[in-house]
């Protein structure tokens, strides 16, 4: 089989019963239940994300759709109505727009409009593109009425059989099904050859009288660039309008919005999240890539962490699972804390009875989840406050999330600045702020009550003031005080001089003081460090390790490492490097032949004399072996280096090979 | 264990990796010092280490002297020591070392160069002074000897390799989960991953309840593999038996995809590609086709990649379509099926002629050919030898196609170009000649043998 080109796999022997049993022991025994829990959790999350993502561009989608409808209802010119969607980077954002459009249309209409998506991969010439355009158009439609056997050729047309790239086919089809519009979406406009694109547009333009086309161009650069690339004749066929899509950063924010407010059982920790964000920022990823990464975090948490079972239910925990829970670091801290609080009986109960441990676990986990939920609402309150305050930029959800989850937000300069600014607010801003906070209803009941009370007091003060046009000022506002410099005994003295403040102003300052106090204590209470919560390992997933390798592999590094220090992988006694001497592995005869040759290769220059290489190789490895045995190893190693692309043939000198890769470059 | 100690010291000395103080105390320098002060050796400081080092140095000196004594005088001048030759070697084995080593003349690379600096250091002009030693033809093993040796050899690392594979096998359930969640998998790392893939296929097959998945395995490394082979095999499981396949790969793909779209597939299809990054499949069109298959929701796609730089094959769009999760699957297993060792090494060293079992094979083929074919081959060989004499540099080797044709016509070997072509084709079929385009784009014909062998062939022909 290994020498066949391609084959259908047939199992050599089937022993399913025996194999089944192998993996259903230990902590993985609960995998089935965890898997169900995962499916439930992720589906909810996915729905939330999808909802938010589709709502980002909802406005644009309806604009485009209205534009297309308008083109149907009032067909004006011989020009093709064209929507140019300025999508920026991100490969898939457009296709989702088109699919949203298509979904919307198929939902509320009788299918008089069909969507065809073209990408540059469908063909490198006009014929191929037309062919796939026609095929797609016909197939899409037959997918809906699904009766005809052989749709492309069996249209009810008499006469000679048409070639499959003849637009007449499409024309017949349009007539037959009374289609009102065929929307052609160019997914990656920039990737099309410009001449080809112009040709295609002109061609379709010629048929526009017979087939009602409409175009959607997805462009990543600029409309000027598109115009520059198209032939003049092609541009003449188009009647364009520009639509803007939300920038890619907004999509990430939307995902975070979903993550923060969906009430999911699992949270992603700061380090894994910052990896995801970094990757999103450094490599241009579409938002789907980001969502996938989040999904993978969910998968890893549920797959590799047996205690995640408690997220679903803590009932019937197997013994080993309880043991695992007791070994959690946070449980130990929690036990320590119980000891200090002299709750010996409870602690003993937890340690000895699995049942009460399960009860405590589920209680603590629910509590922890609630605390994290509170923290998330605190974050949205924070953003609300930032929105209201003038001259304050609203921090992105992603960075707030990472800061909060790492426990750094509490006591951060950001928060201090915010509270200071609050103390200086003039009264009209304060009213707006209080109203916004009360409307959002995200504070706890106590703070909410205080805010309501403060708003009442403030309104009273405002009603009693003399000049209703002038807002009240806070004492702490620098605008109200002047700095005076006086020279006393050859020293400059700075003295603050407060402007005369009315009684209302003073009362107002007090109100502000209480407001900032209440907010401060609210943030202090809600912004917990997730690492301090008992059982946080269960509901906060924060492992960097699989993510980096799984999404950002370093294959070259892996191969170089395998060859340069095979001990790292093989873990054999014979090749263990001398400890203390140095970190790098040494060359030794016991290492695999390819590894030995690779290390010799590393030491050589860009041209390698094969004969010398052979001598050196023989000197290292050929101690107790006969020459032909060593030669077999040498040949195998050399062939593998070539297969891996480390060396290549050279014609510069006889019996030389050329070095192609430098380690670590 | 004095011998062991010596080895280490020599290794330390010759290894390019620097160490702080020890560099100064390298055996080489010691030996120089010993040379300068021959009397000082006896009244040594009493330090054991020093004494031992000196002993080593003495040994090296003797050996160097020995090997130099064997050299011809001119060769020493020609040959420079190579950085490559700086490999640890046992003092006792020094006899086989490259001749004319002159360490003093090679400035050793500065210690601890970062990778890019090392690159420039090794690529600087005049850096490449390698010896002109050649590998004697007889040491390279042929197919039979090689496979005999491979069969006879028992790897001491067998147990470790098995354990490594066992680690990967533990992840099988995880991989299945990932596949079921709609991701595709890509495996990289050193070592053949074919056996692991087969095991995984078995595992998937055994673990799936109900209707078994349909698994198609593609061996990307098979010589002459085309996209059409892949798609035809895949269409066997996807399309109904009696359906007629279109001729073009793109059309087959289209048929497969539309079939997949039409039906709600209950049975998952799994497409496994071994060596997705092999030269056979490296064309963008092929990768795009795989990506389209991989992107389909009812196809699970598994691929293994061998080369270190495989992610460069895919742009953002393709990578998105592939939807890969990457796993390091270093196995350390030999690339048995993937790589024809003997052929590859011969090609690497420019000895593809060995395929024919050397010049005897050529003689055998020539015997069965008509007279004028033999004459043509004689002309070609003679011309190639003559060219090699004139042009010392090996950049433009071989004989120009036109020139050979005219020569052949002059000697009445053939009368027309068609005739000439037919004769050449016979040689091509037996891989007795190779044709290459040189820098200027003119076609050149080459008999892939070394000079001595060419001369021997010529002798036989004349």
From TrEMBL, chain A:
<comment type="similarity">
    <text>Belongs to the ORC3 family.</text>
</comment>
<dbReference type="Pfam" id="PF18137">
    <property type="entry name" value="WHD_ORC"/>
</dbReference>
<dbReference type="InterPro" id="IPR040855">
    <property type="entry name" value="ORC_WH_C"/>
</dbReference>
<dbReference type="GO" id="GO:0005656">
    <property type="term" value="C:nuclear pre-replicative complex"/>
</dbReference>
<dbReference type="GO" id="GO:0003688">
    <property type="term" value="F:DNA replication origin binding"/>
</dbReference>
<protein>
    <submittedName>
        <fullName>Uncharacterized protein</fullName>
    </submittedName>
</protein>
<keyword id="KW-0235">DNA replication</keyword>
<dbReference type="GO" id="GO:0005664">
    <property type="term" value="C:nuclear origin of replication recognition complex"/>
</dbReference>
<keyword id="KW-0539">Nucleus</keyword>
<dbReference type="InterPro" id="IPR020795">
    <property type="entry name" value="ORC3"/>
</dbReference>
<feature type="domain" description="Origin recognition complex subunit 3 N-terminal">
    <location>
        <begin position="21"/>
        <end position="306"/>
    </location>
</feature>
<dbReference type="GO" id="GO:0006270">
    <property type="term" value="P:DNA replication initiation"/>
</dbReference>
<dbReference type="GO" id="GO:0031261">
    <property type="term" value="C:DNA replication preinitiation complex"/>
</dbReference>
<dbReference type="Pfam" id="PF07034">
    <property type="entry name" value="ORC3_N"/>
</dbReference>
<keyword id="KW-0238">DNA-binding</keyword>
<dbReference type="InterPro" id="IPR045667">
    <property type="entry name" value="ORC3_N"/>
</dbReference>
<feature type="domain" description="Origin recognition complex subunit 3 winged helix C-terminal">
    <location>
        <begin position="556"/>
        <end position="629"/>
    </location>
</feature>
From TrEMBL, chain B:
<feature type="compositionally biased region" description="Basic residues">
    <location>
        <begin position="92"/>
        <end position="104"/>
    </location>
</feature>
<feature type="compositionally biased region" description="Basic and acidic residues">
    <location>
        <begin position="16"/>
        <end position="26"/>
    </location>
</feature>
<keyword id="KW-0539">Nucleus</keyword>
<feature type="compositionally biased region" description="Acidic residues">
    <location>
        <begin position="63"/>
        <end position="77"/>
    </location>
</feature>
<comment type="subunit">
    <text>Component of the origin recognition complex (ORC).</text>
</comment>
<dbReference type="GO" id="GO:0006260">
    <property type="term" value="P:DNA replication"/>
</dbReference>
<dbReference type="InterPro" id="IPR056773">
    <property type="entry name" value="WHD_ORC2"/>
</dbReference>
<dbReference type="Pfam" id="PF24882">
    <property type="entry name" value="WHD_ORC2"/>
</dbReference>
<dbReference type="Pfam" id="PF04084">
    <property type="entry name" value="RecA-like_ORC2"/>
</dbReference>
<dbReference type="GO" id="GO:0003688">
    <property type="term" value="F:DNA replication origin binding"/>
</dbReference>
<comment type="similarity">
    <text>Belongs to the ORC2 family.</text>
</comment>
<feature type="domain" description="Origin recognition complex subunit 2 RecA-like">
    <location>
        <begin position="161"/>
        <end position="329"/>
    </location>
</feature>
<dbReference type="InterPro" id="IPR007220">
    <property type="entry name" value="ORC2"/>
</dbReference>
<dbReference type="GO" id="GO:0005664">
    <property type="term" value="C:nuclear origin of replication recognition complex"/>
</dbReference>
<feature type="compositionally biased region" description="Acidic residues">
    <location>
        <begin position="45"/>
        <end position="55"/>
    </location>
</feature>
<dbReference type="InterPro" id="IPR056772">
    <property type="entry name" value="RecA-like_ORC2"/>
</dbReference>
<comment type="function">
    <text>Component of the origin recognition complex (ORC) that binds origins of replication. DNA-binding is ATP-dependent. ORC is required to assemble the pre-replication complex necessary to initiate DNA replication.</text>
</comment>
<keyword id="KW-0235">DNA replication</keyword>
<feature type="region of interest" description="Disordered">
    <location>
        <begin position="1"/>
        <end position="118"/>
    </location>
</feature>
<protein>
    <recommendedName>
        <fullName>Origin recognition complex subunit 2</fullName>
    </recommendedName>
</protein>
<feature type="domain" description="Origin recognition complex subunit 2 winged-helix">
    <location>
        <begin position="393"/>
        <end position="453"/>
    </location>
</feature>
């Amino acid at each position: 089989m290994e020498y066949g080109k391609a084959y259908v796999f047939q199992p050599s022997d089937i022993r399913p019963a025996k194999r089944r049993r192998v993996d259903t022991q230990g902590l993985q025994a609960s995998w089935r239940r965890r898997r169900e829990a995962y499916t439930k959790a992720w589906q909810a999350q996915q729905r939330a994300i999808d909802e938010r993502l589709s709502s980002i561009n909802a406005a644009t989608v309806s604009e485009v759709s209205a534009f297309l409808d308008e083109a149907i209802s009032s067909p004006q010119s011989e020009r093709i109505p064209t929507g140019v969607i300025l999508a920026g980077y991100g490969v898939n954002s457009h296709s989702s727009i088109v699919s949203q459009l298509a979904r919307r249309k198929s939902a509320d209409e009788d299918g008089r409009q069909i969507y065809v998506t073209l990408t540059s991969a469908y063909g490198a010439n006009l014929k191929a593109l037309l062919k796939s355009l026609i095929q797609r158009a016909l197939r899409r439609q037959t997918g809906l009425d699904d009766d005809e056997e052989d749709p492309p050729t069996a249209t009810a047309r008499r006469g000679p059989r048409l070639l499959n790239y003849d637009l007449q086919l499409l024309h017949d089809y349009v007539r037959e099904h009374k289609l009102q519009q065929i929307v052609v979406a160019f997914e990656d406009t920039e990737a099309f050859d410009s001449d080809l694109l112009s040709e295609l547009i002109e061609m379709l333009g010629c048929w526009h009288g017979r087939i009602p086309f409409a175009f959607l161009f997805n462009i990543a650069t600029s409309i000027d660039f598109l115009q520059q690339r198209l032939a003049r004749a092609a541009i003449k066929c188009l009647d364009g309008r520009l639509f803007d899509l939300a920038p890619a950063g907004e999509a990430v924010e939307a995902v975070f919005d979903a993550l923060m407010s969906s009430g999911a059982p699992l949270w992603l920790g700061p380090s894994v999240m910052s990896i995801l964000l970094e990757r999103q920022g450094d490599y241009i990823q579409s938002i789907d890539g980001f969502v996938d990464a989040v999904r993978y975090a969910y998968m890893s948490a549920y797959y590799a962490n047996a205690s995640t079972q408690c997220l679903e239910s803590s009932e019937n925990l197997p013994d080993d699972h309880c043991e695992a829970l007791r070994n959690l670091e946070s449980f130990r801290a929690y036990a320590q804390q119980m000891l200090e609080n002299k709750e010996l009986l409870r602690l003993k109960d937890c340690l000895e009875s699995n049942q009460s441990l399960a009860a405590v676990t589920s209680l603590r986990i629910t509590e922890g989840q609630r605390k994290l939920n509170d923290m998330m609402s605190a974050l949205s309150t924070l953003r609300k406050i930032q929105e209201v305050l003038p001259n304050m930029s609203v921090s992105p959800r992603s960075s707030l999330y990472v800061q909060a989850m790492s426990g750094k937000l509490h006591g951060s300069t950001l928060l201090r600045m915010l509270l200071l600014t609050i103390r200086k607010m003039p009264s009209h801003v304060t009213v707006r702020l209080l109203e916004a906070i009360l409307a959002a209803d995200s504070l706890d009941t106590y703070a909410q009550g205080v805010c309501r009370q403060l708003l009442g007091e403030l309104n009273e003060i405002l009603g009693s003031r003399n000049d209703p046009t002038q807002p009240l000022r806070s004492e702490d506002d620098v605008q109200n005080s002047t700095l005076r410099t006086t020279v006393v005994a050859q020293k400059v003295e700075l003295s603050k001089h407060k402007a005369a403040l009315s009684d209302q102003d003073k009362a107002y300052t007090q109100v502000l003081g209480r407001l900032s106090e209440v907010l401060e204590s609210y943030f202090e209470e809600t912004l917990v460090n997730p690492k301090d919560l008992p059982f946080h390992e269960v509901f906060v997933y924060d492992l960097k390790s699989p993510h980096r390798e799984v999404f950002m592999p370093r294959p070259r590094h892996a191969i170089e490492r395998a060859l340069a220090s095979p001990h790292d992988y093989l873990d054999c006694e014979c090749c263990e490097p001398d400890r203390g001497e140095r970190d790098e592995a040494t060359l030794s005869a016991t290492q695999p032949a390819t590894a030995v040759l690779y290390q010799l290769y590393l030491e050589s220059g860009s041209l390698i004399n094969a004969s010398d290489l052979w001598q050196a190789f023989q000197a290292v490895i050929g101690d107790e072996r006969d020459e032909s045995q060593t030669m077999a190893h040498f040949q195998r190693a050399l062939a593998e280096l070539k297969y891996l692309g480390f060396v290549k043939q050279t014609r510069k000198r006889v019996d030389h090979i050329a070095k192609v890769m430098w380690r670590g470059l | 264990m004095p011998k062991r100690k010596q080895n280490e010291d020599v290794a330390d000395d010759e290894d390019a990796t620097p160490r702080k103080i020890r560099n100064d105390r390298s055996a080489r320098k010691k030996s120089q010092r010993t040379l300068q002060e021959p009397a000082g050796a006896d009244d040594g400081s009493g330090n054991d280490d020093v004494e031992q080092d000196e002993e080593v140095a003495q040994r090296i000196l003797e050996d160097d002297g020995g090997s130099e004594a064997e050299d011809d005088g001119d060769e020493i001048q020609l040959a420079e020591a190579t950085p490559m030759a700086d490999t640890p070697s046992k003092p006792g084995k020094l006899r086989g070392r490259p001749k004319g080593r002159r360490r003093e003349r090679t400035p050793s690379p500065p210690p601890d160069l970062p990778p890019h600096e090392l690159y420039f250091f090794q690529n600087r002009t005049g850096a490449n002074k390698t010896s002109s030693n050649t590998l004697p033809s007889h040491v390279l093993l042929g197919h039979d000897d090689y496979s005999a040796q491979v069969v006879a050899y028992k790897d001491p690392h067998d147990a470790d390799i098995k354990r490594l594979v066992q680690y990967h096998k533990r992840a099988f359930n995880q991989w299945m989960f990932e596949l079921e969640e709609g991701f595709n998998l890509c495996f990289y790392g050193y070592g053949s991953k074919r056996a692991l893939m087969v095991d995984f296929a078995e595992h998937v097959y055994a673990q799936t309840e109900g209707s078994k998945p349909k698994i198609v395995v593609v061996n990307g490394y098979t010589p002459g593999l085309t996209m059409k082979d892949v798609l035809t095999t895949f269409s066997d499981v996807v399309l109904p038996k009696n359906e007629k396949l279109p001729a073009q790969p793109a059309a087959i793909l289209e048929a497969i995809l539309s079939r997949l779209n039409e039906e709600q597939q209950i049975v998952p299809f799994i497409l496994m590609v071994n060596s997705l990054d092999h030269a056979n499949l490296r064309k963008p069109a092929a990768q795009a086709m795989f990506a389209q298959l991989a992107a389909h929701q009812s196809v699970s796609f598994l691929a293994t990649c061998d080369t270190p730089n495989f992610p460069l094959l895919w742009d953002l769009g393709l990578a998105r379509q592939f939807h890969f999760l990457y796993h390091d699957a270093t196995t350390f297993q030999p690339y048995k099926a993937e790589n024809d060792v003997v052929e590859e090494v011969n090609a690497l060293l420019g000895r593809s002629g060995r395929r024919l079992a050397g010049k005897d094979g050529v003689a055998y083929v020539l015997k069965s050919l008509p007279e004028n074919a033999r004459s043509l081959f004689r002309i070609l060989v003679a011309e190639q030898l003559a060219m090699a004499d004139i042009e010392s540099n090996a950049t433009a080797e071989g004989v120009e196609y036109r020139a050979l044709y005219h020569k052949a016509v002059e000697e009445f070997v053939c009368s027309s170009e068609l005739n000439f072509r037919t004769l050449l084709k016979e040689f091509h079929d037996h891989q007795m000649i190779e044709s290459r385009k040189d820098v200027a784009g003119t076609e050149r014909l080459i008999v892939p043998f070394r000079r001595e062998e060419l001369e021997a062939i010529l002798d036989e022909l004349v």
